[in-house]
């Protein structure tokens, strides 16, 4: 008798467990960075909060170091719902979402705080609408600071210093045009290939923020870092719309709140990491030079704007929205 009762109870418990397992959903997330990077730490806190608030019904596993593929591929995978979420730079995202390209125009934002303010407001909303139309649900905007040029040959102080240099860029035609505007040779290439390419002379340099230059050890092979700060491109923690649509309203709210909270901490960690990275690269022998006069770079890169607006007249309004808020 006792045994029968126990068995029934056990069977009941098991079927509840089976039901929960069937209901529970684990989402897979893409990240290109190493585990101790501000983006990675913030993504982990996003995942922890989701698991905690849903009582384990919804979980998120973050795959760091780009193991789920290179960035442009991963964006496509996410649109298809093969990857559920990820943290993407709006540069490579411009291939899929034209609206995102406005943030890849050189010197479009004048400072990182200004970028935050605009991305948290109407500009971010407009770009987000573009993402949604292409299967991507934006959750929150992270920081990637400002990007500057670095190379193994010489410090860059004027656009003329870039002439003839082979520079790796992220995959987006705008960046090719940007380097060509200074008579440099641009090579779009995956992030993970840059170290070896500089080391073997396939390219002379690249452009990025100090935390990425430091975390990838590029400072070992390209010792001139010139603070041109020509691009301030936001990053997006976002989700496949296919995955988003599978969530209950309550889960969507939990995911959205967790994303927003993670962005606040990411931006704080970002500022700290920038300072720490600068210290580390200087100690390692990088020659960092500030670029006092950025006007010649802005002038040289101006045709990038003109050509972009000529090719995308429908985005003029969005560019003006940024300009008018400055
Ligand atoms: C880093 C971005 C990352 C890009 C990388 C790159 O955070 O998303 O993949 O630059 O240059 O700053 O490819």
UniProtKB/TrEMBL annotation:
<feature type="signal peptide">
    <location>
        <begin position="1"/>
        <end position="21"/>
    </location>
</feature>
<dbReference type="GO" id="GO:0030288">
    <property type="term" value="C:outer membrane-bounded periplasmic space"/>
</dbReference>
<dbReference type="InterPro" id="IPR018389">
    <property type="entry name" value="DctP_fam"/>
</dbReference>
<dbReference type="GO" id="GO:0030246">
    <property type="term" value="F:carbohydrate binding"/>
</dbReference>
<dbReference type="Pfam" id="PF03480">
    <property type="entry name" value="DctP"/>
</dbReference>
<keyword id="KW-0574">Periplasm</keyword>
<dbReference type="InterPro" id="IPR004682">
    <property type="entry name" value="TRAP_DctP"/>
</dbReference>
<keyword id="KW-0614">Plasmid</keyword>
<keyword id="KW-0732">Signal</keyword>
<dbReference type="GO" id="GO:0055085">
    <property type="term" value="P:transmembrane transport"/>
</dbReference>
<protein>
    <submittedName>
        <fullName>DctP family TRAP transporter solute-binding subunit</fullName>
    </submittedName>
</protein>
<dbReference type="InterPro" id="IPR038404">
    <property type="entry name" value="TRAP_DctP_sf"/>
</dbReference>
